[in-house]
Amino acid sequence: MPLLPILRFPDPRLRKVAVPVTNIDGSIRQLAADMAETMYEAPGIGLAATQVDRHIQLIVIDISEERNAPLTLINPEILADEGLQIGEEGCLSVPGVYDKVERAEKITVRYLDLAGKTQTLEADGLLAVCIQHEIDHLKGFVFVDHLSQLKQARIKSKLAKQARITA
Ligand code: NI
Q1: CA distance 51 to 11
Q2: Residue 91 assigned ligand-binding role
Q3: Domain boundaries in the chain?
Q4: Can 102 be counted among the known catalytic residues?
Q5: Per the CATH hierarchy, to which homologous superfamily does domain 12-166 belong?
Q6: Which tens digit of pLDDT belongs to each residue from 28-51?
């Protein structure tokens, strides 16, 4: 399975709003498999289709320690949220940058699985953070959008410097 290139902040394609998946066919299942492979290789705990320049509502997540429990959420929608938590986040599209972001502590999310079946999941802690972070991507947001303007400017210049070194 091919690894997919991951867009890097501030690439404007990260701002595209993803459309719902209308037909869960072989190409969607292949994309989910390739995204999971790309996420494990990176390594990361979540990846949104937006980050691989596919602007459809599909995310893959695996917060398991064994890295063998990939979760694919298609057309995810948060039905309810509760409480607040602040955790340190990072993102495969913003390499080397970690900062604190406030998220709901607990969420209820409805989505389609790879078989096209509607699922409802109650998540809290890290899984809740990860789902909120990935759904943000589908809407064209990156976690650094939650940070101050000053921090965002610093992150942009840090990443521009990295790009010059690795180019
Ligand atoms: Ni991310």
Answers
A1: 10
A2: yes
A3: 12-166
A4: no
A5: Peptide deformylase (3.90.45.10)
A6: 999 999 999 999 999 999 999 999
Which residues lie closer than 8 Å to 65 by C-beta, 6 or more apart? none
Among 37, 77, 88, 134, the active-site one is: 134
How close is the Cα of 36 to the center of ligand 1, in Å?
Answer: 14
Amino acid identity for residue 75 in this structure: N
> What pTM was estimated for this model as a whole?
0.95
**Residue 137 assigned as binding residue:** yes
25 CA distance to ligand 1 middle (Å): 25
130 labelled binding-site residue: no
Helices and strands of the chain, counted as H and E runs? 3, 7
Read off the pLDDT of residues 111-141 as tens digits, 9 standing for 90 and up.
999 999 999 999 999 999 999 999 999 999 9
